[in-house]
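Materials and Methods. Structural model of Permease. The 397-residue sequence of Permease from Paenibacillus agilis was retrieved and submitted for structure prediction as follows.
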Amino acid sequence: MQAYIKPLMDAALFFPFFALALTLPFLVVQYRRYGYVNKLRAAVLYSMLLYMISAYFLVILPFPSSTDNCIREGAFWTYSQLVPFTFMTEILNHTQVNWTQPSTFIQLVKEKAFLQAIFNVFLTIPLGVYARYYFRRTAFQTGCIAFAAACLFEMTQITGLFGIFDCPYRLFDVDDFFLNTTGGLIGYFLTPLLTFFLPRSEKLDEDVQLSQMTVGYVRRLVAFLIDTIVYTAITGIFTLGIGVFLYQSLSNQGTDTVLAWILYALISVVGVLIYFVIVPTLTNGRTVGKWITRIHVVDDRLQDEQQGRTITARALFHRYSLLYTIIIGYNYVFGFIFSFTDLSPIILLSALFLYFGIGGLLVLHLIVNFFTRDKRLFYEKWSHTRNVITERKETSS
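The predicted structure was written out as tokens:
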């Protein structure tokens, strides 16, 4: 039993790292496809991820102590069982059960040959449940999926983890194809019983009204991260090149670095104006990040106007000038102050107090608004703008 428990413990240990790595792609797919993240769907998909990791770890672990394992483990034929239904012969030959006395059937759960066969059946039962409940596959399709999973498992074993190890170290058994496929089909037929209290997967989004939903901070953070990557990729090299050129020119002329800071700030301002004001004006409130996450900025004062325009350049300029002047601007100011190495201790302590004080107030403001229904921050309220979910237009047939 320890041979099964240890891989499951390892899977539970590695699961948070896999889940974290896939969270951003998962959120993007959910936002693009459904317009929001359904908690039940997320629970189902993450549980499926945990199952897949656990199943694969059960197949490949434990590893040999060395990749050069042919002498210790034996070559291919040592770790191959190519006679179909050998598992039945093994059970019959080694069992202590008296088939005429049902009371002895309990002995099966203590016998290695029976446990190995049952393990390979149970290994793919969850796969059958996921295939029918979430992906809405037929019995035939589910059987094919379970058979494909068995092929992956056996290919992993026969190749020594795809060539990482010189020889196989786990048994390649043709019976596993039958047992794994059977497990998938059992899971398929058990699905109605196991998911009795869950809503049908095709009805998860039935009563959802995207227009009534508030855009949360996680979604906005994802959009911001995407915009940061895109903005940096587009303007980073250009800005860096100009910045280096200007800095060298100013240094060669002996000009004070104050002017260099001002020029860096101007370059950043121009980039922000183009990306966050001009582009969203042309795309009706969308940046690349907002388009990917299916949100856009609207001006509450334009909701009753016609022609489909919900944002203006003026409103966007008001919104982002407030945001970047207060949040980014104060970092520029204090960064400039802290660049001086000859500050007196009193001035330095005062600057640090103001810097962390303002930062603390901004964080407190974010936390307080996190628990409000509106969730708009100061720059959104003052500019009368907000993020809303972009709904797909129904096309007429």
